[in-house]
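User: Let's play a game. I give you a shape written as C-alpha cells, and you guess the letters that built it. Ready? Here's round one.
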C-alpha cells in the first residue's frame, strides 16, 4: 500500500490524520527498519482524576498507541497488531502536558508480535509497557482521505 514511501513521508501523511486528536498525538520520528517510533502527546486536564494525575487507562492507551504504531509503520500500514495482553508499569504519576512516547517492535512473527513502549515526561520515564499482539491484515484505509485530502 505504502511500500514506496519514505519514513519521513509516512510521518507527514500520518500526522494529517485527525483520528487521534483525543491524545493530541503527533508522530515525531519513525525508523521502519528498526521498528521504532517517537511521538508526542499533549494531554489536557480533562483526562485527570481528582488528584490531578492523568487517569491510568488514558496513560495505558497512550503506551499502547506508541507500541502499536511502531508495528504499523514498520509494516507500511499493511498489518496491524490488536492487543492480546498489555502490561503497564506506572513508575510516576503522569501530569497534564507534554509526554514523549517511544514504541518498539521486539519480535514480529507470522502471527504473534511482541512490542514495548515507554512514556517520558520532563526527562523522566513515567510509564513502561509490554504487549503481546496478533498480526492481522490492515483493513483497506485511505490515509489521504482520513486527513481531509480528497485529491
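Assistant: Ready! My guess for every position:
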Amino acid at each position: 500500500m505504502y511500500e514506496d514511501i519514505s519514513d519521513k513521508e509516512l510521518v507527514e501523511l500520518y500526522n494529517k490524520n485527525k483520528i487521534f486528536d483525543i491524545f493530541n498525538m503527533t508522530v515525531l520520528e519513525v525508523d521502519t527498519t528498526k521498528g521504532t517510533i517517537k511521538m508526542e502527546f499533549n494531554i489536557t486536564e480533562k483526562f485527570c482524576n481528582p488528584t490531578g494525575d492523568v487517569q491510568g487507562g488514558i496513560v495505558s492507551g497512550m503506551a499502547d498507541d506508541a507500541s502499536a504504531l511502531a508495528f504499523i509503520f514498520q509494516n507500511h500500514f499493511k498489518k496491524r497488531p490488536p492487543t492480546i495482553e498489555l502490561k503497564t508499569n506506572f513508575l510516576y504519576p503522569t501530569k497534564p502536558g507534554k509526554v514523549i512516547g517511544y514504541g518498539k517492535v521486539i519480535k514480529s512473527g507470522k502471527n504473534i508480535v511482541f512490542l514495548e513502549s515507554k512514556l517520558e515526561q520532563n526527562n523522566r520515564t513515567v510509564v513502561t509497557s509490554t504487549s503481546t499482539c496478533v498480526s492481522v491484515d490492515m483493513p483497506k484505509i485511505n490515509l489521504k482521505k482520513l486527513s481531509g485530502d480528497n485529491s
